């Protein structure tokens, strides 16, 4: 069982071949991207050395650009009549890991 921990959109994700990852929006709209590996597990062998991980390539294919669910930000101050409501939807990118080598 081969898997890697990669840096994806400001977070760390555990991925295998075929894993679909949703991460913060990246500039690539289509094609393939390379994700930097932070840890590699190949059977019983665990690799964390930065020089060895520089040779590891985690290739992912961009599936689509989406937006996350709407979240509501509400602010309220008692006795002053101050109320503020704001919404936010995060821009996201879905990628599928095609190979780890």
UniProtKB/TrEMBL annotation:
InterPro entries for the chain: bL21-like, bL21-like_sf, Ribosomal_bL21, Ribosomal_bL21_CS
Alphabetized Pfam families for the sequence: Ribosomal_L21p
A GO molecular function held by the record: structural constituent of ribosome
GO cellular-component term (any): cytoplasm
PROSITE patterns attached to this UniProt entry: RIBOSOMAL_L21
UniProt keywords, alphabetically: Ribonucleoprotein, Ribosomal protein, RNA-binding, rRNA-binding
GO biological process, one term: translation
Signal sequence, start to end: none
Family designation: Belongs to the bacterial ribosomal protein bL21 family.
Function: This protein binds to 23S rRNA in the presence of protein L20.
Subunit composition and interactions: Part of the 50S ribosomal subunit. Contacts protein L20.
Protein's UniProt name: Large ribosomal subunit protein bL21
């Amino acid at each position: 069982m081969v898997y890697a921990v990669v840096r994806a959109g400001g977070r760390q994700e555990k991925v295998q071949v075929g894993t679909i990852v949703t991460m913060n929006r990246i500039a690539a709209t289509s094609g393939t991207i390379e994700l930097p590996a932070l840890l590699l597990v190949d059977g019983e062998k665990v690799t964390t050395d930065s020089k060895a991980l520089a040779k590891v390539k985690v290739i992912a294919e961009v599936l689509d650009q989406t937006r996350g669910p709407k979240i509501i930000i509400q602010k309220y101050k008692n006795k002053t009549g101050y109320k503020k409501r704001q919404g936010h939807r995060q821009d996201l990118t879905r990628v599928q890991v095609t190979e780890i080598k």
